[in-house]
Amino acid sequence: MPLLNEGKQEEDKDFALRWYKVRNRVKEDFGQRPDINAMLFLIGINEVGMVKEVWEKEEKQNLLHVAVCKLFESEGYFKFIGNDEEGWPHWETVKGAPKINLKEQEGLLKKKIVEYFEQL
């Protein structure tokens, strides 16, 4: 079984490099290396298409929600239903989130974030 583990390590190394490149790209644009929440916030802003000096707490939460819906739409968890009168996108839940632990959730979020930024 060493060959299977060896391939997995290469896959992990490849992903770590892709994650680093995406975070570095954002750092170059905004001056600091972002964490997962900052990346989700940026995706939310990009999807909403609005830029504001100050976002209210509820708006920030909504931006994170928009980002998660956008990221997991391709996985079949959400279906885009349209924008409201203020321009905010909305999705409906198609299926519930998988039952995975926190570390697995973080890994899945990172994977989807990398895919999103690589498509820009």
Provide structural commentary.
The structure is a single chain. The protein contains four helices and two strands, in the order αααββα. With 120 residues, the protein is mainly α. It has one domain. A hairpin with a 5-residue loop joins strand 1 and strand 2. The model has no long low-confidence stretch (mean pLDDT 90).
Main attributes of the structure:
120 residues, mainly alpha, two-stranded antiparallel sheet, 4 helices, 2 strands, 64% helix
Present the secondary structure layout.
Layout lengths: L1 H29 L5 H13 L8 H17 L4 E6 L5 E5 L8 H18 L1
Antiparallel strand pairs: 1-2
Helix pairs in contact: 1-4, 2-3, 2-4
Overall shape: it is globular
Helix content: 55-70%
User: Would you identify the regions where 5 or more consecutive residues have pLDDT less than 50?
Assistant: none
Count of discrete structural domains: 1
Strand order in the sheet with the most strands: 1-2
Number of strands: 2
Rg from C-alpha positions?
A: 16 Å
- Strand-residue fraction? 5-15%
Oligomeric state of the chains present here = single chain
Summed up, the helix count is: 4
Overall average residue pLDDT:
90
Order of helices and strands: HHHEEH
| Terminus-to-terminus distance | 38 Å
Q: Name the structural class.
A: mainly alpha
Q: Largest sheet, if any?
A: 2 strands, antiparallel
